[in-house]
Amino acid sequence: MLMPRRKTPELMVPTLDHGDFNLAEEQSERGTVICFYRGLHCPICANYLTELDKRVGEFAERGVTVIALSADTEERTRAMADKIENKNIRFGHSLKLSVARDWGLYISTSRGATSIGIVEPDLFSEPGLFMVSPDQSLYYGSTQTMPFVRPHFSELVGALDFAIKNNYPARGEYDGEV
Questions:
Q1: Sheet of 128-132, strands arranged across
Q2: DSSP character for 5?
Q3: CA of 25: how far to CAs of 28, 132, 141, in Å?
Q4: Mean of all residue pLDDT scores within the chain
Q5: pLDDT at position 22
Q6: Helix 74-83 to helix 43-61 angle, to the nearest 10 degrees?
Q7: Positive or negative torsion for Cα 69, 70, 71, 74
């Protein structure tokens, strides 16, 4: 289980147009937003990533970098980037499902073609959204078992403003007896 204020698992993936991404080497003032999405087969992911694409600049203004990634192949990832008419998102691909599980993501099996006619991979991860501090400790995390009801990026931007203004620490860090 990932714990706030503790180091996150390693995360290294190739990207479409920005070389390899390595979280341990990421350079940012305040951290990195990591958006794990299901893949090209998911129409909800396409809508979600379209919204993220609009917010990348707002995160950058706050000293936060952004990456979206999935277990999809490079070709399927390129198709997703093209589908959403990506302008700003750094897309990672070929995420190993063992790494997805290290991040606490749920793994699903294929149900064949989705409502948009694209076949799901045999195995893929469900969504997760994380904010990782520059020291690679977890600041915020959300994982889901379903593609529905995801955190809104506009709310995360607002939360960042509050956290920056008030020097608000990561919460949920207690792991003692209850």
A1: 91-92, 64-69, 31-36, 128-132, 138-143
A2: T
A3: 10, 12, 20
A4: 97
A5: 98
A6: 80
A7: negative
Hey, how many other C-beta atoms are within 10 angstroms of the C-beta on 108?
A: 17
| Structural domains for the chain | 12-156 (3.40.30.10)
Tokens 């350079």 found at? 27
Contact 152, 102 (CB under 8 A): no
- pLDDT 10s digits, 73-107: 999 999 999 999 999 999 999 999 999 999 999 99
CA distance 161 to 100: 29
**What is this structure's pTM?**
0.97
The count of C-alpha atoms lying within 13 angstroms of the C-alpha of 75, restricted to the half-sphere facing its C-beta, is 0
Contact 2, 36 (CB under 8 A): no
